[in-house]
Amino acid sequence: MTPLFQPPHAPPLTGEESFVEATWKFLRNPVEGFGPLAYRQPIVSAKTMGRTLHTITDPEGMTDILVRHADKFTKTAIDARILGPATKEGLLSVHGEQWKRQRRSVAPIFRKRHMADLAPLITAVIEDFTARLDVRPRLDLSTAMAELTFDVLAKALLGDPQGLDRDRLKTATRAVVTGAGTLRPDDLLPWPRWVPRPMTPRGSTALKRLKRAADDLIAERTDHPADDLVGLLIDAENLNRRERRDNLIGFFIAGHETTALTLTWSLYLLGRHRPTLERVRSEVRQVCGDGPVGYDDLDDLAFTRAVIDETMRLYPPAPILNREPQAEVEVLGRTLAPGDAVLLNNYVMHRTERLWDDPLLFDPDRFMRNPSLRGKGAPYMPFGAGPRICVGAAFAIMEAVMVLATLARDYDIIVADDVYPRPLMTVTLRPEGGVPARLERVA
Ligand code: HEM
Fold first, then answer.
1. What gap in Å lies between CA 41 and CA 292, rounded to an integer?
2. Residue 46 domain-assigned?
């Protein structure tokens, strides 16, 4: 049997560090800031910076918080601090009745019946991408995938509106995501909600541009209706002007970097493990021949989908979710109280021996052997769970499978021998230093 690949693992804390060392490590890269207890126990509670912090690394505890008692928790001041300036009135940030009303209006936009219509748009973007790739096969996978997923969203969400300066929108969105949307050590300090988050002049200019572009686009689309996702957003009942704009921006922020990272890490893993690349390739050839990967093929691309899932297990794009209890709640035998902070740690849950065999191995067959790992209550929650589960999950999976299937069938993925990027949490989980690679068309 071919040996499986084990990507190097960022070492967790040993438990021997001083408080200052441990805090510094956590502030620099939160996924490296957890010790053996978090891997061994479902819940770890500690008093830090004047408040009790509970770290949950267990499906039962996560289900308690995200599903059973979802109405007793809100997202935290950290989320509000990072996302607020860009999408304060959008689904990502709002709570209570406002969230319920918006979710009811927005969820239908991402229903299955719209997905089939969007698949040909994704195919067109993939074709443009591969045409460029054939001319310039050397790339940084993170940058290239971010461009590709931006283009997919722009096409799916915006169609081809007249007068849209797509490059300007792309530059502004990238600047907002990589600048304003990046976690900084000072974000983890307990600021009151009214303290504004300082922004670089570049970040605030990008944000202004993005808001103006979104406003212009919605105005243009209101005058010239079209049948794309913006059209659906405009038609969505019960949303005011600001909510429409903030949701449009929210889709770009939540939707392009996360999917790009899933693709970046999965291409890196396939580049590092040729037998898995060849297995994906042969599956895609069998299902799709030489033609485009279509919506109707998706269910048959089971192994390609398993690669995507196994990638998000090892590298969850949203590695840690935050919540604050608004009332006392019993979780895993502890009382969580208002004023406490809760970290729902997907990264550790996905990598602990308590819940997985050989958790550090890249083994997509886990999901072939046991598809219920994607179901409710499993120790795998890359899209969250409960009422606030990712609204764009079906779109993201469709896009990721279509892109990965096409690239794995048609290209060899050559990652330089010394490239083993460290996962660095900056809200999302990025490969530190990027992933320089060469994608060469298979003869
Ligand atoms: C692989 C790709 C993606 C991953 C891993 C991901 C992950 C997540 C997670 C974990 C949450 C829940 C956050 C929480 O409960 O605190 C979430 C929420 C959300 N996601 Fe995604 N996401 C992805 C793609 C997308 C796409 C493509 C879109 C839209 C175009 C999107 C839009 C949203 C929105 C609007 C929410 C907020 C939902 C609510 O609070 O009701 N995401 N996502």
1. 46
2. yes
